[in-house]
Model the fold of this input.
Amino acid sequence: MTIQRHWPLVIIGSGAAGYTAGIYSRRAMINTLMIEGLQPGGQLTITSDVENFPGYSTIMGPELMMKMREHAEKFDLNIYSDMVDSVDLKKHPFTIHTMNDKTLTTNAIIVATGASARFLGIPGEKEFMGRGVSGCATCDGFFFRDKVVMVAGGGDTAMEDATYLTNHAAKVYIVHRRDELRASKIMQKKAMDNPKIEFILSAIPVEVLGNQQVEKIRLKNVKTGEEFEQKVDGFFVAIGHKPNTDFLGGQIELDETGYIKTKPDCTYTSVEGVFAAGDVRDHVYRQAITAAGSGCMAAIDSERWLEDKGLKG
Done:
């Protein structure tokens, strides 16, 4: 695809936030380019069934993203398959450099690059992704009703995910490499007081085992080196998320956990003309519907900003 040198608006990243921003910006008649990244569609492309997106009682994650993309393309959104390597936000118009050595300028940017779940990198983890392995308890917990699952992690996220999973699963194991948890005392107590939760401390997962689905996790006692197996139907990794902001080079204000900070009740960032949408700014909800909502907000915010500055055309 041949792309022009300058754009009124560039959306960096795809997924629910990016595609929604693209739909709204094109309906506002803004000539918009989306640079979709190396994983078009974002995290939902590695999710199986989605049952909590309004309008679809059930739909596969990749299919939902395909439908969003088709919707955006209906309004002639320009989608370019590349990944942004760096940006220069110190002067206006902004400059964007891509991995394929493209350089272009833009009046406004919507950052919708999302956040990637941190995984352990153990054998079987990638192979069983969407077939018992997950990085999102609120997304996939429903599919483990009356089953046995394991959560890896010792922080607040792990305690929160394990507690949430007890709404569905019959049994939840929490495995943590230390003999003490990192989670806050109140979150620890909540998990420890739950009769459905059992702790496996001083142990690390070393392999995910199964056939078509996850069947068990091989664990290693970090003190003795002894390995043992635990039968489970699902394995949730809850060791945090990493917002995809490295390409920004520290030019936008981030919070203490690395997420883009936006001004109250809008998607404006610390740099005028740069807006953020989706999981790259949201470490609380991390849902497709909230990402789509903020994508809408970012498109409206950017349209009004461009209009105000006389830069929409």
Q: What stands out?
A: The mean pLDDT is 94.
